[in-house]
Amino acid sequence: MKDARTVLRQWFSALAITTTFATSAASEDSAAPLTAFEKALVEMPAESWREIPGSQMKAECAPDRFGVHGVMGCAAVTEAWSGGTYASGHRLMLVWGGGHNDYWGNEIYAFDLRTGRWTRLTDPSPGDVVKGGGADPLPDGKPNSRHTYSGLAYLEHVKRLFAQGGSVSPGGGGTSVTWLFDPAQKTWHNAGSGGRPGGYGLAAAYDKAGRAVIVRATQGLWRYDVDRNSWSQLAGFGNRPLWPRYEVGGNKTAAIDSRRRLFWSVGNNDFLVWDIARGQMVSDDWRTSGGTPYSNARRLKSYPDQVLNAGGAEIHDAHAPGFDYDSKADQFVAWKGGAPMILDLATKTWKAGSATGAPPAQARNGTYGRWRYLPEYNVFILVNSVTSNVFFYKNTAGGPRRDGS
């Protein structure tokens, strides 16, 4: 029998081959004519919302015969502290969630941007497999269902979904296994669990330039090198000068400003900005204005030297808001219900977008990564719940930047 290291080496060698194919396929994708649905997204006017009739995910929910209903059923895929990510190489918005005793299903759902329709990419592992005690992986070798929080990202250069951490079924324990999913083959790969962040409330974002994922945990900042399948800690928050400002629990959302290679984490009073290239915290350099005044003074009342005051409290204090980088406008656009909040990075100023046609409130336990920027169409997608239609928000008019980013 092959040992684990041999299996991993072979699998990551296969990823290198897949990367070459993926680059070619991505070029073919970009050259393919847009469908009518895709054209409609490109042609949306600036600062407008569009709701897609008949696009409720519930029509694709796994049937009861799998025995994974839990307390909430399929509704928990979005309601139970879970997120999603945009698989640009496949033009699919992927949603994965559930976990604890809310829902035991580990299936993945995909909204196809070419057709405007949902599909269930995989079937859930049967309930009899799950109820054995909260293992990850399950006895069938697949990942257990979990609250995914903001622990999902899409690895563009290998066309894989990345998943880290979460609260698994049925008991709610944490996990530190790194999972990779191939949407084309609909297969999972267990990349290991040693020396990695895990548990609740992780916030991840893909650094395309570094071919890595940056993960914000409560007590530290981590980097996952995709090609080497290796983890390293970038910063620990247990000691000063980073403690106690950055030791923030609860549920947050992360995104990367790819122009400056800055990793941002917001939500639950978090205000964290990490310079990836320089390897240092630069939050104080990014004090913003506009919107509602933000402050961490109440949380840090015994540490006045660590207080940061800025703008945009609507997002920094929100519970797991939607938050992603608009590469064409060079802005972060965030959403927690109603009008989105837009942070112009050139001026460091927040402003409100349009609320006309927007869902008035986010899902009860947060939006996480179910709000994503789609660069191919220069538009944001929102999956707010299993029982609501899919929404799109256009920040600025037109299609993508001419360089395709």
TrEMBL record:
Location of the region described as Disordered in the Swiss-Prot/TrEMBL record: 124-143
Organism lineage string: Bacteria, Pseudomonadati, Pseudomonadota, Betaproteobacteria, Rhodocyclales
InterPro entries membership: Kelch-typ_b-propeller (IPR015915)
Signal peptide positions on this chain: 1-25
Organism: Azoarcus sp. (strain BH72)
Domain of life: Bacteria
Keyword annotations from UniProtKB, A to Z: Signal
Protein name: Hypothetical secreted protein
